[in-house]
Every structure is written in structure tokens, then in C-alpha cells.
Design a protein that fits this description.
There is one protein chain. The chain has a domain at about 40-65. With about 60 residues, the protein is an all-alpha fold. Helices cover about 90% and strands about 0% of the residues. GO terms for molecular function: protein transmembrane transporter activity. Its main location: membrane.
Length: about 60
């Protein structure tokens, strides 16, 4: 049980003393970057899906008409 207690103490010490937390401004900037990247990747995937779906529908119309 003392190993677990040491682990908890060391974890708390690391979080309290060794970790550098971002400032509010840095956190907002990082959040905007992640949000922008997420929207960009979402649009790219939607566009690829739209093009692939349109291409397959065109191909099916040609083959099965």
C-alpha cells in the first residue's frame, strides 16, 4: 500500500510543481487552432465523400441503365 501512496504523492508533486500550465491566452489560441483544424478536416472529408458518392452514382447510372 505504501507504493500506491508514494505514487499518489509523486503524481501530485509533479502536477503542482513540475508541470507548466498554459496561460488563459495561450489556451484560447490553442483551442482556436484545434477548432479550425477540426472544421477544415471535416470539410475535406465531406468533400471527398461527396465527390466519391457522385462518381459512384454516375458509374451506376452508366452501368445499370
Amino acid at each position: 500500500m505504501s507504493k500506491f501512496a508514494d505514487y499518489v504523492k509523486n503524481s501530485y508533486k509533479e502536477l503542482a510543481e513540475k508541470v507548466t500550465w498554459p496561460t488563459w491566452s495561450e489556451l484560447q489560441q490553442s483551442t482556436m487552432i484545434v477548432l479550425g483544424a477540426t472544421v477544415l478536416i471535416t470539410v475535406m472529408i465531406w468533400l471527398m465523400d461527396f465527390i466519391a458518392g457522385g462518381g459512384l452514382n454516375f458509374l451506376y447510372k452508366i452501368l445499370y441503365s
